[in-house]
Amino acid sequence: MSYISHKYWLLLMFIFLPVSSTQAQIPMHLYNRVAGFDYDPKQFAEAKLSMESIKHGIYHFGESEGEWDMVFLESEGKIMVQVWYGDWGKDEKTHQDYWKQLCKTYNQCSLEGSTLTLGKLKGRFANYTEDGKVSRALLLFCDPIAGISLGKDTADVGFYNSFPKGRHYNFQERNQLSLTVQPDDFFKNMTKQELKILRNTVYANYGYQFQKGSEMEQYFSKKSWYHAYCKDVSACLTDIEQRNIQTIIRLEKLAK
Asked: Over 90: is that where the pLDDT of 155 sits?
């Protein structure tokens, strides 16, 4: 083989050699879909995170009324994700406008390296560098609110926010069953009625519409935080809440 042909083959090998850099893992089209601006993919690099590192804090997407949060929850080594977003609604009784807190939950989640899987949807954790400052980012190849994937080589960008989870779970009355699988002792000394109210508080927290004139509808309609706007909140419940509800149902049968 001549010197020239040898150089030619080396050039071909270099061109078609698989790229293994982290830059190749970053989509070409990165944007904030709500605000409508793009990011330079060269400012992002793949970031492999542990489960321990992602279960704290919130990833924030969008802007203004189109903003939303992705909150990571963990229980017994399992990851769950809640997507909190909002929309305007009108109170049926006062006829005043209010901001509806809406939620969608992904209980089947996994983390492998930098790749986040939400059911059939995907995302990737990355580091974003701007003016020498590095921020944690999450690149979503999907719209988790609509439950659909985005276009090829495209991702919506959200950034880690140090807001505590209490931003969404700071109500003692409403969130006793939201973050921790409670043992039987937690419900000790509660009456059957108290257990019933606590169980239904989980549903009320997501805006569940109780039957008109029912005991629970009358009870929660007196709460300033309660607004009825969802006929079905099953897509909101985390595995943590479902396990706590099952415990209460079992204890209700034994309570007086």
From this structure: yes
